[in-house]
Amino acid sequence: MKNIQLTHILTMLSLLMFMGCSSSTKSEFNVLDYGAKSDGQTLTTAPIQSAIDDCSKAGGGVVLLPKGDYLVGTLNLHSNIEFRFETGARLIATTDLTQYQRHNTELAGVFYTEKADNVSITGKGTIFGQGMKFMYPDSAKVISGSVLDYVRQGKNLRKVNSGIGDGPLYPKDRFHQMIVFSNCTNVELSDFTCIDSPYWCFVIVHCDRITVRNLKIDNNLVIPNSDGLDIISCSNVNVSDCYFSCGDDAIVLAGYDWHFGDPGFQRITRPSKNINISNCILRSRSSAIRIGGWDQNVMSNYNFSNITIFDSNCGININIRDYAGIENINFTNLNIETRLHTGDWWGNGEPIKISAIRGRDTIPGAIRNVHFSNITCNSENSVYIYAAPECTVENIDFTNFDFQLKQSQLDQIGGGNIDLRPTSVPEKEFYASNTPIFYVENAKNIRLSNGTMSWGDNITQPYFTAPVEAIDVNTLSIDRVTASPSPANPSAPLVIAKGCTNLENHINK
């Protein structure tokens, strides 16, 4: 009798162990079991989507993409799904545009995910956008039109005698954002690599609670609009330990509710707040970090730390062109290197640029409470702060900084200008300007403390005016700052001030 009972117990234990193993197995859905081909040539969207859908029907789990190349159109993730790359796995975006879903008026790319919770893409794999196949390879897009009436070089602006210079190339028809998360919660992106997106690589829009970690984006630097990570009208976001090299803005934080019919935008009124970016390396042909633009949702409480920006057209670009404003931004421990580029990229070598000017008929919102500490800039243009007379830029401070300004090898075709595009004010789009180390106009409560300002070798152009130039500023404090006159204007004062009130100047040679 005891032996029968023992046998029954052992049988039950074995059954429970089998059920446990079976349950564990069912939580992982291998795309190869659904007929996905890993040859990189057979379109395999449908079997991968079947694995995703079955995973969702089972209550969630892991969709596994084993090592190999998988040609796809648009895939849709759902709640409680982890899409996991095995090391060496690669999704390849098909060049057949009929395989992509249209959301709003434009085509989404490889992933379009909407209204999902607890969803992630993980693992040491790759998403390859084949961006160069959506480009005309032989001619670069150049700046043209009335904007050339206001720049120093006129029609010779950014002229290239042969080849394509820094691009950008002219695009063919293409899908738009390659990875879209719209109106989702608890999203995680980690460890994978994106290459050669033909348009923005990511848009994460109207989302809450986002984690991005150890993500790598390596877009071709001559592809236009190839942003890295655009986080729009989202809150409670952490981005860390990433490398982004992009033919347009590397990181964008903004408050749009709509963007020219692009996928994912739903005209939702939702603030963008509580975002932390840390331990990242960035390169861009436009702005390495861009905050704001045509914004309808307010933006606040952003923190940036331990950031390296190199070989970029503009370093940090904070700009308002619509009615929503920006406030409470902290930057600490940044190394910024910017230079002039050829081609129709936005930016002109500014390491830090803060501007408020009309982009539409509305008066732009305010930019307030922006703090920089432990900042090093090695650049070919000014740290630049500009507010149109009807706009508000106030409470901006720089502490523990080292600004060095040098003359560019492209100075003859691009130097002595500031690029504030986009704006609806024609004479302020791209225009001739003096190039001091630090320029501020129409702002309020600007503070510079405990820093150095220096010049590179061979400064010859007369528009390199002075360490500081201030126009119509209300309350400018300069304390414990060391600087020297411009080598091109050695008899000029260290601070050129016009129309300013409450100027406290303690700058020293």
From TrEMBL:
One GO MF term: polygalacturonase activity
Entries under InterPro entries matching the protein: GH28_Enzymes, Glyco_hydro_28, PbH1, Pectin_lyas_fold, Pectin_lyase_fold/virulence
Family of the protein in this entry: Belongs to the glycosyl hydrolase 28 family.
Species this chain originates from: Bacteroides faecalis
Keywords recorded for this protein, A-Z: Glycosidase, Hydrolase, Signal
Name of the protein this chain belongs to: Polygalacturonase
Source domain of life: Bacteria
Any one GO BP annotation for this protein: carbohydrate metabolic process
PROSITE patterns noted in UniProt: PROKAR_LIPOPROTEIN (PS51257)
SMART domains per UniProt: PbH1 (SM00710)
Signal peptide per UniProt: 1-23
